[in-house]
Amino acid sequence: MKILLIEDEDDLRDVMKISLEKELFLIETASDFHTAAEKLETYDYDCILLDIMLPGGSGLTLLELLKEKGKHNSVIIISAKNSIDDKVRGLNLGADDYLTKPFHLAELTARVKSVIRRKQHDGQKIINIGNVKINLNERTVNVQSSALILNRKEFDILVYFASNKNRLINKTALAEHIWGDHADQSDDFEFIYSQIKNLRKKLKETDASIEIQAVYGIGYKLVVE
Predict the structure, then answer these.
(1) Which residues contact 30 (CB under 8 A, 6 or more apart)?
(2) Mind telling me which Gene3D superfamilies this protein's record contains (predicted)?
(3) Cβ-Cβ contacts under 8 Å for 79 (sequence gap 6 or more)
(4) Domain of residue 39, CATH code
(5) CA dihedral 142, 154, 176, 16 (to 10 degrees)
(6) pLDDT (tens digit, 9 = 90+) per residue, 189-218?
(7) d(CA 87, CA 176)
(8) How far are the Cα atoms of 53, 64, 74, 221 from residue 81, in angstroms, in the given order?
(9) Which parts of the chain sit beneath pLDDT 70?
(10) Phi, psi values for residue 61, rounded to 5°
């Protein structure tokens, strides 16, 4: 799961990033309005953590930009301002939740997991697809009654495909979603091929009724046999 953390306070941003990475989220950051706007224009995220007061502009303006572009990212506003007006305006602009500083990191994690489940999986903690059961909270996968052992990236790839069943996913979109900013550092998609190959092998070996099919020259799609 990929999160964009938009926060101008360096210490707080670093603490939030480290805490969420321990939960195995992929975290990208922006410390000002213009950097955040550029990232939101270019990439999609499972959740956006959005400070209102930013150098160069308001976080509420970023919400307006998301609304204008028809993007439906999960958004949690994070601000030291406990203003009812800001809260109401942010929620009316499409924010999913509002967290006032200071807050406990455990609460932040719980809110993030909650809005992602609510937006992407109808609030469910379990994805059932074919004979495969994916537990999003525990990050476990079972094929029928047998555990399927996946590494972090393989799990994230499987969840991404399960959330986009029967949809063609191009290699660039997959790379950006799973590897974030680091995807731009590679000249080819060898790092994707390797993870996909291993994941497909593991699914086949456990007699999973789902398959990640390659579409030559474009990408992949997950289908239920």
Answers:
(1) 4, 5, 6, 36, 39
(2) 3.40.50.2300, 6.10.250.690, Winged helix-like DNA-binding domain superfamily/Winged helix DNA-binding domain (1.10.10.10)
(3) 51, 52, 53, 59, 86, 98, 100, 101
(4) 3.40.50.2300
(5) 80
(6) 777 888 899 999 999 999 999 999 988 888
(7) 31
(8) 9, 19, 20, 44
(9) 81-82, 120-124, 180-188
(10) -65, -35
Rounded Cα gap, residues 9 and 31, in angstroms: 8
pTM for the full predicted model? 0.67
- Domain range for 40 is 2-120
User: Can you name the residues that pair with 221 across neighbouring β-strands?
Assistant: 213
Asked whether residue 76 falls in the same domain as residue 139, the answer is no
What are the residues whose beta carbons fall under 8 Å from the beta carbon of 211, sequence distance 6 or more?
200, 203, 204, 222, 223, 225
pLDDT score for 175: 80
* Residue for token pair 């950097």: 35
Q: Let me know: does 159 contact 210? Beta carbons within 8 Å.
A: no
Read off the pLDDT of residues 127-152 as tens digits, 9 standing for 90 and up.
Answer: 899 999 999 878 899 999 899 999 98
Tokens of 69: 């572009």
Alpha-helix runs per DSSP H in 8-164: 10-22, 33-42, 59-68, 84-92, 105-120, 152-162
Q: Decide: 176 and 4 in contact? Cβ < 8 Å.
A: no
Let me know whether 59 and 143 are in one domain. Answer: no
